[in-house]
Amino acid sequence: MGTRMTLQDIAPLSLPGMESGMPLVIAGPCSAESEQQTLDAARALKAIGVKVFRAGVWKPRTMPGGFEGMGDQALGWLQKVKRETGMMVATEVATVDHVRAALDAGIDILWMGARTSANPFAMQDIADVLHGHEELIVLVKNPVNPDLDLWLGALQRIHNAGITRLGAVHRGFSSAGEHMYRNDPQWHIPFELRRLAPGMTILCDPSHIGGKREFVGPLSQSALDMGFDGLMIESHCNPDQALSDSAQQVTPSVLKDVLEHLVVRSGAPFDDELVLLRQQIDDCDHELLAVLARRMSVAREIGRFKRANNLRVVQPARYQDMIKARIEEGDHLGLSEDFTQRVMQAIHEESVRQQLEL
Ligand code: PEP
Ligand code: MN
Questions:
Q1: CA-CA distance, 275 to 190, in Å (whole number)?
Q2: Which atom of ligand 1 is nearest to the CA of 60?
Q3: Structure pTM?
Q4: Residues having C-beta closer than 5 Å to ion ligand 2
Q5: Alpha carbon of 211 to ligand 1 centroid (Å)
Q6: Whose CA is nearest to atom 1 of ligand 1?
Q7: Homologous superfamily of domain range 7-269
Q8: 131 contacts: CB under 8 Å, gap ≥ 6
Q9: Average confidence score pLDDT of the chain
Q10: Among 302, 330, 332, which Cα is nearest to 314's?
Q11: Ligand 1 in reach of 171 Cβ (< 6 A)
């Protein structure tokens, strides 16, 4: 595809902290909530060696009524962080007005969030106002839905506006149902992005992927092992009181511990075929387990219905039809009759067990 070609020319970002091949670390609270909270976080993060500070000023919330960020006034707090600590500062922009205000405030790094990169109109509007600001550093998070072309298109629009200091941030993808992680990593998508834009800096955001504090360390290590160039991590001095994304923010001292324990291995990024393939197997297994759990919850629902209507738990005719249909379907997908039968029997047995236990 012609439009994919120019992303191949994008060179790696070179930002403070990346000297001698170290991963870039961008850290800071999900949101700038007050001047005090912003400065407290910045000072504590500076003290543990963080050189690029993040904070959301305008927060895109999925549901109305949530905390939507402190808006323009918070840009002043980021300016203060920059002046006082010397850290670079980064914030999310979602509209043309946000971009203008952030540029006026001298914000060093702008990023587009997952809800914005999913919208080509918004991305084009933003790209149009970025024209003439070649010095700016722009990061594009993956869109909420697992669509590589949408991500590429968003990056391409910014690149076409003359921005060469461009990077991507992998923050996982929304998916239905209960999963271990808040956002499904689907690692093969950033790997494919790496193949198409080999020089471009690709960061991982373990906070938004994991959705819980305890996942930040392990996901950060996995990301480095898979060749990501750095991490964007949410950190708040008092995470339990945070106005957004409370469960996934870590204190600066926990972050210090996470960073100190990270092993930075040498080796060409994204080159270890086996690591990549195993990661895809893990992705498949996470999906399988989530689907099985969903199936069991439907089975329990059916169990309650049967009980209320005085029906038997096992209905042999339905069972036979189901197995037969699944074997046929499995055959089309290249699965042997014996395998499909054994798997479906095991699943059915567990459904029956759960229905009997109600
Ligand atoms: C964020 O970084 O706080 C944020 C809103 O992220 P995302 O766009 O990945 O949801
Ligand atoms: Mn957040």
A1: 14
A2: 5
A3: 0.84
A4: 30, 245
A5: 11
A6: 30
A7: Aldolase class I (3.20.20.70)
A8: 161, 162
A9: 93
A10: 302
A11: yes
